[in-house]
Amino acid sequence: MTLRPATELIDEGRRIRAREQQRLEPLLPGVELRLTGGSSLPGAITGGDIDLHCRVTGDFDHAVSVLTDLYVPVKAEIWGPTLATFEVPDELPVGLAATPVGSEHDRFFLSSWAQLAAEPGLLEEYNALKRTYHGTDVYEEKKAEFFGRLGGYS
Predict the structure, then answer these.
(1) Which has more confidence, 153 or 82?
(2) Residue 46 sits in which domain range?
């Protein structure tokens, strides 16, 4: 996968987010879907995927059950009481991470991307990490180390 500027995908990411928000609202009242990840941030580079953060109010187990009926569960090894991950069918690769509002994972997703948006040096460090390691066997490890320094998970 070739790296490209996030600005090439932000509009498409917003369209996908809006479509999936409409799809989820009747099934999970109060759910908030956010565009996140490298494709959400001007100045970032991306491998061409879209990341969505599904913030769940109410019964998280019920929400995970609903999401499992709609999407393909992925990365089961990282699932926990406050995190579930899915692949959303689309022409582009689209991932969705679900968290209960206010949980550790929820706070981390919000704060880490806010830090990257607010601190150009951090964003350039993240871009440099992608340029160096994207597509290699150690990319996920290096990405986890980077986000770990921001205070949590990737």
Answers:
(1) 82
(2) 4-149
